[in-house]
Amino acid sequence: MKKLQLIGRLHEAGVVAVLRGESPEDVVRMAEKSIEGGIRAIEITMTVPYALEAITALAKKYQSGDPAAANYAIIGVGTVLDSETARAAILAGAEFVVSPSVDEATIRLCNRYRVPVMPGAVTIADITKALELGVDVVKLFPGSMFSPSIIPTLKGPLPQANIMPTGGVSLSNLGEWIKSGAFAVGIGGDLTKDAVKTGNYDLITDKARAYMDAFRKAKAE
User: Distance between alpha carbon 24 and the CA centroid of its chain, in Å?
Assistant: First the structure.
């Protein structure tokens, strides 16, 4: 039941902050500012040095709260290349796992522990394989290769596929992705680049609010 609840909450959250940084302290701060801005799903990538430390710190702070509370967030892990990394991240507190490709061993491990897994896929063949392995949400990656119209195109033969574009999603096209049928969207560098450049991390909160406003507007239309 918990897996189904998490998938539902990820869908309701709508926007997943994909965070990369130079240290665990750096991405924890990014996550805190994103959550302040209303984003409720945080993905810490394994390219961050000592990423598991950041996942544990954020899981302890945000996962135990009421899902309706402002201080609640779903903490997950990204850029997972193998099942060993997935298991380590789950033990560290990750509630969902994202990978850049369809790795069967990683998917099977996540299914074993009833943890949502979102492998990256581009082709119909990749998405079909992911569905056959029991994947509930497929990450369309890199999303920058396509326009939002790719989602209804893919859903033509695969209407049962839940698709989350990541990479190339911006404030200017988020609404179009959602209206095209995206399960949710992943936001990467655009959320944090201005803050990293200026050192003003409050800009992440402002950008997060803008993304959530755009998401809610698209869902209401």
Answer: 18
Q: How far apart are CA 206 and CA 36, in angstroms?
A: 9
Q: Which two tokens stand for residue 219?
A: 């869902």
Res 70 pLDDT > 90? no
Three-state SS at 154: helix
Interhelix angle 24-36/189-198, nearest 10 degrees: 110
- List the domain boundaries for the chain: 2-220
Mapped onto helix, strand or coil, the DSSP state of residue 43 is strand
Query: 178-217 in b/e burial notation, b at 16+ Cβ within 10 A?
Result: bebebbbbbbbeebbeebbeeeebebbbebbeebbebbee
CATH no., domain 2-220: 3.20.20.70
CA nearest neighbour of 16 among 143, 108, 127, 107:
143
What's the pTM?
0.96
What residues contact 101, with CB distance under 8 A and at least 6 apart?
Answer: 81, 119, 120, 121, 126
DSSP label at residue 170: -
- Contact, 32 vs 26, CB < 8 A? no
Chain segment 83-139, per-residue pLDDT in tens: 999 999 999 999 999 999 999 999 999 999 999 999 999 999 999 999 999 999 999
Pairing of β 138-140 and β 117-121:
parallel
Name, in order, each residue with C-beta under 8 angstroms of 173's C-beta and a sequence gap of 6 or more: 148
